[in-house]
Amino acid sequence: MKPYHLMSKEELASLKEQLTAVYKEYQGKNLSLNMARGKPSSDQLDLSLPMLEILNTTSDFNTVDGDTRNYGVLTGLAEAKQFMGEMMSAPAENVYMYGSASLTLMFDTVSRSYTHGVMGSTPWCKLDKVKFLCPVPGYDRHFSICDFFGIEMVNIPMTPTGPDMDMVEEYVNNDETVKGIWCVPLYSNPSGEVYSDETVRRFANLKPAAKDFRIFWDNAYCVHHLYPEKPAQILEILEECAKAGNPDMVYKFGSTAKVTFPGAGISAIATSKANLADMQKQMNAQLISHDKLNQLRHVRFLKDGAGLAAHMAKHAELLRPRFEAVDEILNKELAGLEVGTWTKPMGGYFVSFDSLDGCAKKIVAMCKEAGVVMTGAGATFPYGKDPKDSNIRIAPSFPSLEELKLAAEIFCVCVKLVSIDKLLEA
Amino acid sequence: MKPYHLMSKEELASLKEQLTAVYKEYQGKNLSLNMARGKPSSDQLDLSLPMLEILNTTSDFNTVDGDTRNYGVLTGLAEAKQFMGEMMSAPAENVYMYGSASLTLMFDTVSRSYTHGVMGSTPWCKLDKVKFLCPVPGYDRHFSICDFFGIEMVNIPMTPTGPDMDMVEEYVNNDETVKGIWCVPLYSNPSGEVYSDETVRRFANLKPAAKDFRIFWDNAYCVHHLYPEKPAQILEILEECAKAGNPDMVYKFGSTAKVTFPGAGISAIATSKANLADMQKQMNAQLISHDKLNQLRHVRFLKDGAGLAAHMAKHAELLRPRFEAVDEILNKELAGLEVGTWTKPMGGYFVSFDSLDGCAKKIVAMCKEAGVVMTGAGATFPYGKDPKDSNIRIAPSFPSLEELKLAAEIFCVCVKLVSIDKLLEA
After folding, report:
1. What crossing angle do the helices spanning B273-286 and A140-148 adopt, rounded to 10°?
2. CB-based burial of residue A139 (10 Å sphere; 0-12 exposed, 13-18 middle, 19+ buried)?
3. Which of A267, A356, B2, B266 has its CA 20 to 30 A from that of B362?
4. Does residue A282 contact residue A96 with C-beta atoms inside 8 Å?
5. Same domain assignment for residues B225 and B130
6. One domain for residues B282 and B356
7. Are residues B108 and B136 in the same domain?
8. Does B264 sit within 8 Å of A42, measured CB to CB?
């Protein structure tokens, strides 16, 4: 294929005419397709239906923690800690269970730091300025938490091996207003990178100017491999931090949102005992216990690491064709045109697309007018501001394969049309 | 019975000798009895076991809100709002669903006010002083929330018709540092009072000095009648506040903790739309949705107000004999001795006992040494400080009837011994 930027204006104009006709045809179909959010498909949700029958009138509800149906066991059932520890690569003794979503756990962790500080430090609400580093593109809901608490966000570019660590070190080691960084270390949201061992080691060896600096290690996709026979692996950061003399520097977050049921899963934090003790002061006032029946339901259904892996392989079977279809269509339609690049992730929930500069918003708007809802352009950046207006997050998981293919085709038409307009205006 | 204070020192000393022998006998039995927390008994938990089978592999998970198994529906399922609205005497449109416990909802409401203020007011963390009024005796976990946020607590004496409203009006209408009051309006924790219509109207007609003053109306026992054929009723405060021109002044809290499973129930807030909108800003950043499957499970099991009432009648059948046994034993052992008074509640989870001044801590300590765990004396007051050291909260719900009777007998022996000691020292 001839790159668009090498085409003459006449060629581009003629192409535009053809594509506009195609676009109008799509528009006439009154479609309603959605590639906006990383939602599991209905088929994926079906995989966990048997879990709903695990607890019944004949179940034994007694565990080492007593009758799980009653009050108590603030930090979670022992077997749930064991299970989530295995999933999150952390000893059970470093795990506290939380509620039905890790997003709430992350929010509450920031909130607690804001109101009470971190292990005795000045509460962030008493400071003039608090900054978080945000590898970009990143997860919009991380940014929303910062936004809610008035935390200033600093963009850190992603590289194929993780965030730009020179920049991370420069900020963290010299600026004491920098209190945190958001990381999705495995199959990064949205661009799918896997942090290299060197990146993890450099994280563990940070020398933070702020003693209350913490790494918010959101290992959301820790078992979400698209190719389970060759799973990506990352160094275990809790241990690396301990080795480096920074045992308290990291909070690891995990949940079963995309293992069982989004919003109705179980979540956990894995961190040092000192951090757990700090957190428990809040939990003592905030609750008596999280939903232990749901903890029990999950553990008895998924059982252990092996049970979890087998379950996740079924998810992969459903997800893989969708990811491959998107890649195939983008390849068929856009390869060689030099109007965009995209990722081919080995896990996680997203494909990250980078258009020509200044085109993302227009592409998303055109898609919407043809009935294809995408994540808002800019959403993958703090404050919703993509400096280049080029990144678009594609979420292939939810639509049926047929719908997804159609949506991807329409997306490509929009990419072409907006790119042509840009080149024609140049 | 002859009141102890009319007995001679000789009579008392002789009585003490007899009672000490009885006490020692109990001590020798290595008992382990618990009247400490308002936990449902195992029999009560069994009542809700069928709920665990409501959702299964053949269920229809689609509601007006779509597939309840997936992400979304931040403020809760429509039918859950309808159900909780019916339970909490509020229109569904004034209800937002929350997580698995109302304690967390109350904590988060205070936390949000602390970090972000109330409908645009100065965040409480930026103020030099914030005070809450605390009707006493009251619920220790309300006080823990204040304690966690450094909120100064002011004791307000309870009367048979609710908190001392002269004092409430004096504080709320004149002191702009007073931002809230904790209320358990129906079967108050622990003393069982039911707020009179006049009390509710006086609440609704407060003229707060602070525009961000809110009534934290924790209607924990709204359907927890011990005598369902003659349920106590209170005026609906949301409507009374609206009538009085204070539509935003109250947050009503409710949950199914003691309807189905403690910590694994569903909870909700009922308040004005302006307050809901304020709250939603936090929820937007904190979560995607609470556990909708648990909402669905609850609604399909309990169905509606009638289903709920029928279910609660079964709880009452199990609770009533326990409450009556405690009252019977206290009557048999202590009536006429003038060493203490106690409540005979018509609902809720507690009997409130008031000993002679300065005796509560000693009674609880003596009970413990004989194997009977009571709520710590003082726990029903802010900062754990009962100025008279006289209030003891008795929780009859959890032990078996046999154990409960034994525990109550031992409690009475301890009350007698400590009272005698006090009178002998006088």
Report:
1. 130
2. buried
3. B2
4. no
5. yes
6. no
7. yes
8. no
Q: Which residues of A touch B290 (CB under 8 A)?
A: 100, 263
Same-domain status, B136 and B203: yes
Q: For residue A53, tell me if it sits in a domain.
A: no
Candidates B105, B253, B291, B294: best to mutate against A (most CBs of A within 10 A) is: B291
In a domain, A50, yes or no: no
Name the pTM for this structure: 0.97
Co-location of A189 and A144 in the same domain: yes
Number of domains composing chain B: 2
CB A148 within 8 A of CB B281: yes
Q: What is the pLDDT of residues B143-175, one digit of tens each?
A: 999 999 999 999 999 999 999 999 999 999 999
Domain residue limits at B256? 61-302
Chain B residues touching A145 at Cβ < 8 A: 285-286
My answer on whether B154 and B220 are in the same domain is yes
**Domain annotation covers residue A83:** yes
Which residue of chain A is at minimal alpha-carbon distance from B116? Answer: A149
pLDDT by position in tens, chain A (length 426): 899 999 999 999 999 999 999 999 999 999 999 999 899 999 999 999 999 999 999 999 999 999 999 999 999 999 999 999 999 999 999 999 999 999 999 999 999 999 999 999 999 999 999 999 999 999 999 999 999 999 999 999 999 999 999 999 999 999 999 999 999 999 999 999 999 999 999 999 999 999 999 999 999 999 999 999 999 999 999 999 999 999 999 999 999 999 999 999 999 999 999 999 999 999 999 999 999 999 999 999 999 999 999 999 999 999 999 999 999 999 999 999 999 999 999 999 999 999 999 999 999 999 999 999 999 999 999 999 999 999 999 999 999 999 999 999 999 999 999 999 999 998
Q: A126 contacts in B (CB within 8 Å)?
A: 125
Establish if A55 belongs to a structural domain: no
